[in-house]
Structure prediction request, 89 residues.
Amino acid sequence: MNVKRPREVLVRARSGLIAAQIGVGVGEEALRLWCDRYVPEVAPTPVAESLEEQNKRLKRELAEARRANEILKAASAFFARELDRPTTR
Prediction:
């Protein structure tokens, strides 16, 4: 589970000191559980959701453009063969 933490928690975590070294008198596991319980989870922003929707839309458009491109390639090959045939009049 990837949870974004507030800056203060990250600064403390990066210091590398454990609770016993700081002198809090609380076990590491208890401290971790408290942080998990009381640090609010960051909800996804509407911007991130709209980016996901935009990504899906662009992928659909790309797939449609690729299909159209394949059809046009096949059609151009067909008509090129027709132009290369000698006339039978």
